[in-house]
Amino acid sequence: MKVRYFAWMKKTVGVPEEEVTPPAGIDTVGDLVVWLRGRSPGHAEALAEGGAFGAAVDQRTATFDVKLAGAREVAFFPPFTGG
């Protein structure tokens, strides 16, 4: 699956996107976050526990309990505001 990072997160991780193959047992967005933290210090910083960031699965906003089965893309982004 493709994992994409936006805004400051891509600088912290070091890439704007990457192809990953999570191991068995990575079933939800939250599981993926925990697994990705172990990939590098940048991943750990960008996806820190308690950090303020959101996720989208296949371009739809997602909570961390959303299942990844069949997902082609997961994106992570910092909070944003509009007006």
From TrEMBL:
InterPro entries: Beta-grasp_dom_sf, Mopterin_synth/thiamin_S_b, ThiS/MoaD-like
SUPFAM superfamilies listed in its UniProt record: MoaD/ThiS
Top-level taxonomic group: Bacteria
Pfam families referenced in this protein's UniProt entry, alphabetically: ThiS
Signal peptide: none
UniProt-recorded name of the protein: MoaD/ThiS family protein
